[in-house]
């Protein structure tokens, strides 16, 4: 069983078993546990063979509508005038799947910081597979013919729909501030991205210069809003994430749940996993999505599983009786 199969089977498990997989940090241990579960239960689905976009419903959301194209065009103008914030070559193997075919498979990808917050994968034009066609559709104005909008396509005998074999708009960059001609492919334009054998389920890879440290504490934390206490505990976990504010994660039993209302919002962080949200309602006033938690956190953040975090900038936070600055 390959690593890709391991992750595919993990993703097919029911929530309780999937949580156990997330907590298991060793792929070897995952394999052993999966082998045991496979002999004990018929609930496991067969290993995914990554043949088509149906296996990856989170992707292919990017389109050629004006807002998406406008966003790429705006980025192109920024890169043409200012260049990227920074970039570096990555030794990771990066692959992109389109309609059952890898249109690139490279260890020469670049991490490009379009801004200071996090990087994106940019793929060398030279890394495209021989069966992949890169088509320039239009040049970016005022970029001296160094940046074009374009599409990627690949032939497929299993699909009669041309849209399945062609990406939406991509950026083709041959600018002096980047070392080689590169492609900016919006992550949802492909069926799936892989870092080594791990599926990439977020809009960007992890920043190699960021880390998360989660520390239990006996310092008291109180969360309030408009003088109403929303939560209070002497057993918080403090999450330290490079260049971001410290976040306090609190036991669910420390929360006054009468003020929380379930939200439909979800977000995904490559370091922590998928977050679910609550609104806060006091009287007739509602503050949207100011509380979040992770039911199935990423392995590096398992300590915050099911703990509750408040958006510090929108509530009042006291640590050891001292109000934190907003």
Describe this structure in words.
This protein is α+β, with helices and mostly antiparallel strands. It folds into three domains: 3-40, no CATH class; 53-200, no CATH class; 212-323, Beta Complex (Metal Binding Protein, Guanine Nucleotide Exchange Factor, Chain A). 15% of the residues lie in helices and 36% in strands. It has four helices and 22 strands. The protein has helices at residues 3-12, 15-23, 27-40, 66-82, and strands at residues 86-89, 94-98, 101-106, 110-113, 120-124, 132-139, 147-154, 170-173, 182-184, 192-195, 198-200, 212-216, 221-225, 228-233, 237-241, 247-250, 260-269, 273-282, 285-293, 308-310, 316-319, 322-323. A seven-stranded antiparallel sheet has the order 1-4-5-9-8-7-6, covered by helices on one side. A seven-stranded antiparallel sheet has the order 12-15-16-20-19-18-17, with no helix packed on it. The protein has a four-stranded antiparallel sheet with strand order 3-2-10-11. Strand 6 and strand 7 (147-154) form a beta hairpin. Helix 1 packs across helix 3. The longest helix is centred in the N-terminal third of the chain and has 17 residues, at 66-82. Mean pLDDT is 82; it is low at 1-63. This is DUF427 domain-containing protein. Residues 95-135, 221-313 form the DUF427 domain. It holds the Pfam family NTP_transf_9. It comes from Periconia digitata.
């Amino acid at each position: 069983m390959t690593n890709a199969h391991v992750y595919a089977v993990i993703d097919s498990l029911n929530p309780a078993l999937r949580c156990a997989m997330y907590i298991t940090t060793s792929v070897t241990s995952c394999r052993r546990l999966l082998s045991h579960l496979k002999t004990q239960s018929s609930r496991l689905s067969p290993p995914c063979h990554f043949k088509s976009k149906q296996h990856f419903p989170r992707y292919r959301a990017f389109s050629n509508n004006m807002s998406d194209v406008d966003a790429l065009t705006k980025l192109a103008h920024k890169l043409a005038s200012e260049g990227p914030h920074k970039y570096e070559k990555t030794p990771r193997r990066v692959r992109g799947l389109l309609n059952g075919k890898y249109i690139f498979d490279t260890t020469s990808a670049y991490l490009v910081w379009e801004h200071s917050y996090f990087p994106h994968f940019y793929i060398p034009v030279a890394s495209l597979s021989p069966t992949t066609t890169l088509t320039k559709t239009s040049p970016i104005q005022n970029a001296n013919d160094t940046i074009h909008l374009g599409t990627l396509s690949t032939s497929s005998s299993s699909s009669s729909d041309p849209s399945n074999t062609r990406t939406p708009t991509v950026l083709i960059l041959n600018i002096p501030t980047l070392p080689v001609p590169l492609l900016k492919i919006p992550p949802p334009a492909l069926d799936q991205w892989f870092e080594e054998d791990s599926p990439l389920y977020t809009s960007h890879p992890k920043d190699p210069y960021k880390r998360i440290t989660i520390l239990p504490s006996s310092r008291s934390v109180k969360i309030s809003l408009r003088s109403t206490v929303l939560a209070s505990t002497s057993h918080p976990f403090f999450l330290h994430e490079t260049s971001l504010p410290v976040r306090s994660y609190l036991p669910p039993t420390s929360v006054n749940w009468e003020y929380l209302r379930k939200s439909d919002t979800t977000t995904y962080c490559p370091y922590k996993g998928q977050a679910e949200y609550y609104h806060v309602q006091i009287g007739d006033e509602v503050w949207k999505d100011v509380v979040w938690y992770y039911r199935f956190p990423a392995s590096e953040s398992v300590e915050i599983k099911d703990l509750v975090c408040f958006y510090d900038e929108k509530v009042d936070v006291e640590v050891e009786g001292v109000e934190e600055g907003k």
